[in-house]
Every structure is written in C-alpha cells, then in structure tokens.
Amino acid sequence: MDLNTLNNFLTDIAVAPFTGGSRLAWPFLVASVVLLFAFLLFSANNAVLRGQARQLLTWRYWLNGQSGLDLAYTLLNSALKLWVLVPLLASQMVATIWVINLLQQAFGPGPDWQLAAVGMAGLFTVVFFLLDDVTRFALHWALHRVPGLWHLHKVHHAAENLTPLTLLRVHPLEMALYYCRSLAVVSVVGGVFIYCFVGKVMAWDIIGINGFAFLFNALGANLRHSPVAIQFGALEKWFISPAQHQIHHSVQPQHHNVNYGSALAIWDRWLGSWRSGAEAIDLKFGLSQGQPLRDHPSTSHSPASGQIVR
Ligand SMILES: [Zn+2]
Ligand SMILES: [Zn+2]
C-alpha cells in the first residue's frame, strides 16, 4: 500500500461515520438542532429543557476524556466497517438471492402477485421497518440479559456524558452482531418480496428502500444521546423519545433494563420494560459504581411487583 492509498483510506475511515445514511450525517445533525429549537420554543416544560440544553454550549460537554474515547471507538468501528463489513455488503445481495432460491426450491416459481409499484414499496417499507425494529429490540434485550453479551454492551453504557457520538461507542463485536442482524432482515424480507413480486422489482430496489429509517433519523434521533430530555407528548407511548433512551442510560437501579426499543415503544410495553420519558428527571448516566449492576439479570426482584428491577 503506497502513501497515497493509505492517506485515502485513513480519510475514508474518518469521513464514513459522518456521511451517507449515517445518523451522524450533517443533514440529520441539522434536523436534530432544528427539532431541539422547536422544543425549546414550544414545549410545555421548555424551562427544564433550556437548562439541559445549556450544557451543549459548553466546551466541556464536547471536549473531555469521554469524548476522546467516543471518537476512538468511532474510528475503530469505522475501520472495521470498511475492512470487514463493507466487503461483506456484497453478501447482502448473495444472501437475498440464496433466500429466493430456497423459496423457489420449496414452493416452485413465485406467485407473481400484481401490485402497483407504489403499493409494493409501501408494503415493503412497513414490513421491513417492523421486522428491523423488533430485531433491534430483541438483540438489545439480549445484550442486556445475556451475561456474556452484556460485557460487550457495557462499552456503550459506560458513557457518562451522552453526545451524538455515543451512538458509535460500541464494542466492535456488538457492531458485528448488529451487522449480522441487518443482513438477516434484509435478505429475508428482500428475498420474500422479490419472490412474491417476481419480475416487478430488482433486488437493489428492495434493498434501497428504507423510508422509515430516514424519517427516524431526520426526527432528531441524535438527541437521544444528549442531556436534553425531550418527550413526544401524545406519541410518547408509541415511539422511543430521547428522554426514554436517556432513562435507558440512567445509573438509577429502577431504570436498569428498561426502554430497549429503537424506534417503536410497543415492544417494551409488550414486555413490561417501558418507562415514560416523564421519569427522566436529573438523570446521571453511566454504569453504577461499586456493584456489578446489570452484570447478571437473574436475581434482583421487587417484592412489591415481582418484576425484575435491575
Ligand atoms: Zn443498552
Ligand atoms: Zn444509547
């Protein structure tokens, strides 16, 4: 590898986390700032939000030992993506074709259902979004509840200062697990749709559609890793607000192992692990000190409710 190639490669590693469909791409960061201003102006509890948002204006919030670590993980994971995951991206297509072949062997030629392109794209987007979201929830649940996996996920929860960069502060193996999850969802949903609507759509059409994810990122997803506890009002019960994810990062024992959701709150409500963003009052983030909290989920039960309260 000559110096020029190495230079280009290192530049790619530094730029990749902030471009393309990444949540940290500048249009999504700008959208988060716009949404933050809207809440600061119009929210019912905007006095509290203003106090929290003031932290964002201090240099100490953005530049400290924690942010150095966040950046280190961001670059490490970016390199991992470019060296390992991007080369594997081709296998998204390969895995999708494998699913189609499997369906053809099991059930013969596809049914060739007729549906307008807009209807097909809409149906695909909804099905993909639901499966994508529930599998994210399931993997996040496992990262907390399976002791071996929790050791990986602790890296994310060790953050005591939540910034948008905390999103990428994850153990490389956790990132690999999320990649495998994504590969499975894309290939199964894409494969089934291409099989059912055979000849109507190219594989890359299917894989390229992810409208809800775009909307999710555009609607201030970056604010969940921030100290500003924004709630979604009437939609709070249905979508994971920034305040709900901040509760997920709280050191308080009653907040441990709650709000695993990514976009939808329904999975947490279904499992009884949902907490409203209204509980996000004076939160401290990070791992609880002096005890192996969340290290193993099996023992601590609330005598009153019988529910696990870690
Ligand atoms: Zn977590
Ligand atoms: Zn988080």
UniProtKB/TrEMBL annotation:
GO MF, any single term: oxidoreductase activity
Superkingdom assignment: Bacteria
GO cellular component terms, semicolon-separated: membrane
Chain ranges of the Fatty acid hydroxylase domain: 126-272
Principal location class: membrane
Positions of the UniProt region annotated as Disordered: 291-310
Cellular localization per UniProt: Membrane
Transmembrane regions listed in the UniProt entry: 24-44, 82-101, 113-131
Sequence ranges of Polar residues compositional bias: 299-310
Name of the molecule in the record: Fatty acid hydroxylase domain-containing protein
